[in-house]
Amino acid sequence: MHLDWLTQYGYFGLFLGSFIAATLVPLSSEGIMIALIYAGLDIKLCIIVATFGNWFGSLSSFGLGYAGRIDLIEKWLHIKEDKIKKWEPRVEKYSVWMALLSWLPFIGDVMSVALGFFRCHFGKMALCIFIGKLIRYIFWGYITFVILNHLA
After folding, report:
1. Which of 15, 90, 106, 128 is the most exposed place for a label (fewest CB within 10 A)?
2. pLDDT one-digit tens code per residue, 47-95
3. pTM of the prediction?
4. DSSP assignments along 12-68, one per residue
5. Which residue range forms the structural domain that includes residue 54?
């Protein structure tokens, strides 16, 4: 996928790409951030922008889950209500870890939706999601910094 349309918009493109990547749309926000850092944008500002964009994307997924209804899940995903109800205690028990790990590829977005669907505490989930995202982008920013300095 060509990311030129995102990278030409700099920080706004990074925010938008990071937001989209935190929804169910497959997109690499790390790749966009690394490309922009390589292109000369400020690494600290890239980390901040990517974190907030991805965080807001996850919060929108949380909201999507919160708006979900069991009857629609049964209809569209063919998952029975009793099976959904079995997951509720697990999601509540591991909600903090799910929020911290919501940055994981593929399953992270689904975890954000599940946290909303099972009505987990918004404030606690928002904070944990933010912390997980921030750690992720600091890691990728550091790796990019080390590689770029090694190449120089």
Report:
1. 106
2. 999 999 999 999 999 999 999 877 777 777 677 888 888 888 999 999 9
3. 0.88
4. HHHHHHHHHHTTTS---HHHHHHHHHHTT--HHHHHHHHHHHHHHHHHHHHHHHHT-
5. 4-151
